[in-house]
């Protein structure tokens, strides 16, 4: 799968996102070019919000990058589908949509199933573990 992503998006900067929620806490991580950013969230944060905040932060990071083509890779199908909703009720999704509409960058999204051996996604899953503590 990693090879297919590289072949289909050879010039894109790839940013992987993931989030987790457990009895010990909630958090998310994103990874770009082997650089990891991890964030703890309030315990009551839903997994949907955590995944959406991961995508939002990946987009904010993407805005600081020089290349114009960005691919954000997430295993959260619900968050990615929410981004396609023309009338979102979720404030995080609405904020992301506004940020995207004001951007000159070409930001695309790709859903990947979790735990499938996709290197960046697996790394995102591993690096978010400390956010649970």
TrEMBL record:
Annotated ranges, domain RNase H type-1: 9-133
Gene3D superfamilies linked to this entry: Ribonuclease H-like superfamily/Ribonuclease H (3.30.420.10)
InterPro entries: RNaseH-like_sf, RNaseH_domain, RNaseH_sf
GO molecular function, one term: RNA-DNA hybrid ribonuclease activity
Protein name: Pol polyprotein
Lineage, highest ranks first: Eukaryota, Metazoa, Ecdysozoa, Arthropoda, Hexapoda
